[in-house]
Amino acid sequence: MKINGVKAIYFSATGNTKSVIELFCKAFDEPAEYLDVTDNEEYGCETDKNTLAVIGVPSFGGRVPAIAAERIKNIRGNNTPAFILTTYGNRAYDDTLNELRSIVESNGFVVAGAASIVSRHSIVTDIAADRPDSKDIKEIKDYAKEFKNKLLNSHNINGIENIPGNEKFRDFGGVPFSPQPTKQCVSCGICAEKCPVGAIGKDYKADSEKCIACMRCVSVCPNGARAVSKLALKMVSLKLHKVCADRKENELFI
């Protein structure tokens, strides 16, 4: 197969998934075009069968974030080969890759490869704080080269069957807190502008019914003026540190 370029499509609230997508695309060593579907906007595009689509999302509670799924469904393929990936904070990605495959394949893509990559946890940021590390980066480069060789040496692109996950995706119960403004807030409005789901009001408080706790507002605030309740963060941290103590490794499926 001849590759005429790469179309990278990703949802990345805190920048972790974006960084991994960029590492993969650089290692593919083909001209790349990037489409970030994170912001609260309408998206849509089409790709042809000679373009490689690289599609990435973070894992939220073992699922594709609902807003990311909604936006990716507007991206159309034409028997376009796709490499899908999920990033996760060293707990588990559960059904995320399998769900992403289902979404992507129903939109005209052929999922020929996939990967799960450990990245810094978006809420409890001292979990996997240094990931992807040098070992991860080498693996990502190796994964990309191995997948590219598969494409270049294939006349017909077939979908893969070995992606883990359940047919009935796990329930996502949400996160019982949302970041709120602190006294350092200067009402610059960046958080509201960048919120993927439009959950931040004119008073810069997050609507807990809309907020998906993606932590984008925290990551983009230039004054460090948004935070989760210290008590809530401590409770979540204690729980996650128990299940995230051991280093999880990246996985490639081709």
From TrEMBL:
The lineage of its organism: Bacteria, Bacillati, Bacillota, Clostridia, Monoglobales. One of its GO terms (molecular function) is oxidoreductase activity, acting on NAD(P)H. PANTHER family: PHOTOSYSTEM I IRON-SULFUR CENTER (PTHR24960:SF79), PHOTOSYSTEM I IRON-SULFUR CENTER-RELATED (PTHR24960). This is Ferredoxin. Residues 6-148 form the Flavodoxin-like domain. Its cofactor is [4Fe-4S] cluster. Gene3D superfamilies: 3.30.70.20, 3.40.50.360. NCBIfam families: ferrodoxin_EFR1. Ferredoxins are iron-sulfur proteins that transfer electrons in a wide variety of metabolic reactions. It comes from the Bacteria. InterPro entries: 4Fe4S_Fe-S-bd, 4Fe4S_Fe_S_CS, EFR1-like, Flavodoxin/NO_synth, Flavoprotein-like_sf, PSI_iron-sulfur_center. Keywords: 4Fe-4S, Iron, Iron-sulfur, Metal-binding. Residues 175-200, 202-231 form the 4Fe-4S ferredoxin-type domain. PROSITE patterns: 4FE4S_FER_1, 4FE4S_FER_2, FLAVODOXIN_LIKE. It comes from Monoglobus pectinilyticus.
